[in-house]
Amino acid sequence: MTALASATAAATEAESLPLDRIDVSRAELFERNVEGEYFARLRREDPVHYCAESAYGPYWSITTYKDIMAVDTNHQVFSSDAGLGGILIDDNIQKSGGGGIDLPNFIGMDPPQHDEQRKAVSPIVAPANLAKLEGTIRERVGRVLDGLPVGEEFDWVPAVSIELTTQMLATLFDFPFEDRRKLTRWSDVTVAEPGSGIIDSWEQRNSELMECANYFQRLWNERVNSDPGSDLISMLAHSPATRNMTAENYLGNVVLLIVGGNDTTRNSMTGGVLALHQNPAEFAKLKANPTLIDSMVPEIIRWQTPLSHMRRTAVADAELGGKTIRKGDKVVMWYVSGNRDDTAIDRPEAFIIDRERPRQHLSFGFGIHRCVGNRLAEMQLKILWEEILKRFSRIEVTGDPVRVRSNFVRGYASLPVRLHA
Amino acid sequence: MLHIKYVEANGTEYLVETDAGFNAMEVAVKNGIPGIDGDCGGAAACATCHVYVDPGWIEKTGKAAEGLEQSMLEFAEDVQDNSRLACQIKLDDALDGLVLKLPEKQH
Ligand code: HEM
Ligand code: FES
Questions:
Q1: Which residues on adjacent β-strands are paired with residue A289?
Q2: Residue B97's domain is classified under what CATH number?
Q3: What integer pLDDT is reported at residue A97 of this predicted model?
Q4: Is residue B59 part of a domain?
Q5: What total number of domains does chain B contain?
Q6: CA separation for the pair A209, B57 (Å, rounded)
Q7: Does residue A252's CB lie within 6 angstroms of at least one atom of ligand 1?
Q8: What is the signed CA dihedral for A88, A61, A312, A247, rounded to 10 degrees?
Q9: For residue A249, what pLDDT is reported?
Q10: How much is the average pLDDT of A358-374?
Q11: Which of A12-16, A158-162, A280-284, B102-106 has the lowest mean pLDDT?
Q12: Which residues of B57-95 are buried (b: 16+ CB within 10 A; e: fewer)?
C-alpha cells in the first residue's frame, strides 16, 4: 500500500470502529503514524474513554489538554507509585515482570519520598549548573557535525541523534568519555523486555544492569571521596537528601536520568529535521531569522511529543468528563493527543516556529512530576540548531522515516538525509 | 483598575495597570515582563511564575497555599518565605500598589 492509501485506510478504520472497540494502546498504530486519527475521534466523541480489553488490561484514555492537566495536577488521587504499576501503561516494565531487579526512583514515587529525592537531583539541571555545561556540550556538538559527510546520503539517527544524546549524558555524569556507549546500552536494557530485540532473557537484563551498578558504584566511591563537583554523581554523593541512599535507589535514580534524557532528546533531534523538511516555509523563516530558534525548540518538542503517554493509578474514585473513574483503575494521559487539541492550541497540526506561547504544551507533563530535565533538553536542541545553521544550508530528508513500534517512546529508528553545504 | 510593580533581580522596574479579576502571572505575561513564562497557563503546575512578594504586602496576598502551590514551590530555586506562584495571586483592588520581585532565573 502507498503511504497515502494506508493513511486513508487508517482514517476510515478510526472513524468506523465502534467506540468501545477502540484501543489506542496498540503499538503498531504509532509505528504506522496513524494514531492521530484515533485520538481525533476520541477527543471529539469520547474524550475520557474506557477500553475494557487490551494487551495491558483495561484502562482509561485521557485525551484532551484540559483533562490531562486535571489528572496531572491531582497527584493525591492519581498515583505514580511503581508498586501500583508506575507511570507506563505496561505494568511489567517498571516491575520487571517479576523476573528482573527493581530500580526504585522518584518518577515512580508519590510524595513525600518523591519530593525529597527530586529536590536532591534538580539542582544539577538548574539554569546555573546548565550554564557550566553549555561550553562542553557546544564543543562536542560542533565536533560531531564537522565529521558528517556533505552531499552523501546517511542515517541521521545513529550519526547525530544517538551520538549527541550519548555524549550529553556522559557530560552530565562526567562519565568516562570512551565508555559512553555503555550509557545508551544500559538505557535501552532498562526499558527492554525479553524478546524485544534488545535482550533475550531477564537473566541477561539483570547481569547487564549489575555491570551498570558496579560501574556507577565505582564512580560514586571516587566522587564521594573528592570535593563536591557539578556533575550529577558528585551531587548525589554529597547532597544530604541522597548521600545515604541505598545502592539500589542510587542506581534507580541514575538510570532514571539516563533513560529520561535518552530517547526523548534523541527523538527531538530527529523530529526537528523532519519537521523542517516537511515545512519549507518555516525553514525559510528560520534562515531569515535564526533567533527564532528560541521559540522553535519548544515547538519541536510539542510537535514531536517524544513520550506519547504517562500513566497513573487512581487511589480513590474520581469524576472526570462525566465519567466515574474507580479506585484502582489505570489512567493513561495521552500527551500526544492533548498536544493536538485545538481547543487549547491554535492550529495544533501545524508546525509553526514562531508561536506566541510555544511552551504551552504537554510534552513535559505538568505538576509535581513535570520533567526536571526540560531546560536541559531545550538547551541541547538550541545548541544543535545554532551549530547546524552555522554549517549547512539545508538538511534534505531523502526517504521515509522508520518509526519506533511503541506506544510510549514516540520516535524514529532511522531517517535518511543529505546535507547541503 | 489597579497598579502592580514587578521588579527584576537586576533592579529594573515595570509598573503596569490592570483591571481586577486577573492573576499576577496573566498580567505579567500580557505586559511582557521578562522571566515569567506561565507555561501551564495558571494551574500552579509548572512553577515558571515564581515571584517574591514584597514583605510589606505578604499579609494581604497571603503565603503560598497548602497543596499544589507549596509542592511546586518546593522544586523551584531560591525559594524564600515570601515566595508565591504569581498565577495563584488573584488581583483585586485591595492589592493596588502590590510589589512583586522576580527571582534571578526559573524553569
Ligand atoms: C525533549 C526531551 C524530554 C521530554 C519530552 C521529557 C518528558 C518527560 C515527562 C513527560 C515527564 C513526566 C513524567 C510523569 O509525569 O510521570 C518527565 C519526567 C522526568 N524527566 Fe524528562 N523529558 C525530556 C528530557 C529529559 C532529560 C534531558 C532528562 C535528564 C536530565 C530528563 C529527566 C527526567 C526526570 C528525572 C523525570 C522525573 C521527574 C519527577 O518524577 O519528578 N528528562 N520527562
Ligand atoms: S503559570 Fe504555571 S505555576 Fe503559575
A1: none
A2: 3.10.20.30
A3: 47
A4: yes
A5: 1
A6: 53
A7: no
A8: 10
A9: 81
A10: 96
A11: B102-106
A12: beeebeebeeebbebbbbbbbebeebbbbbbbbebeeeb
Confidence of residue A100 (pLDDT cuts 50, 70, 90): low
Question: pLDDT digits over A367-420, tens only?
Answer: 999 999 999 999 999 999 999 999 999 999 999 999 998 999 999 999 999 999
Nearest C-alpha neighbor of A175 from the set A229, A127, A130, A138 = A229
Cell of A75: 497527584
Of B39, B40, B75, the CB nearest to A119: B75
**pTM of the complete model:** 0.94
Q: Which residue of A has its CA nearest to B40?
A: A360
Give the domain range for residue B34: 2-101
Distance from CA of B60 to the nearest CA of A (A): 26
Residues paired with residue B18 on neighbouring β-strands, in sequence order: B2
Given a cut of 70, is residue A250 above it in pLDDT?
A: yes
Convert the pLDDT of each residue in A162-207 to its tens digit. Answer: 999 999 999 989 999 999 999 999 988 887 777 777 888 888 988 9
For residue B86, is it within any domain? yes
CB atoms A69 and B45 under 8 Å = yes
Asked if the C-beta of B72 comes within 8 angstroms of chain A's C-beta atoms, the answer is yes
**Is position B107 within any domain?**
no
The C-alpha of A299 sits at a distance from chain B's nearest C-alpha, in angstroms, of 13
* Nearest of B105, B63, B22, B39 to residue A126 by alpha carbon: B105
Which one of A115, A368, A374, A375 would you mutate to disrupt binding with B, by most B Cβ within 10 Å of its Cβ? A368
Which residue from A69, A359, A372 is facing B43, i.e. has the nearest CB?
A: A69
Query: Measured between CB atoms, does B30 come within 8 Å of chain A?
Result: no
> How confident is residue A3, by pLDDT bands cut at 50, 70 and 90?
low
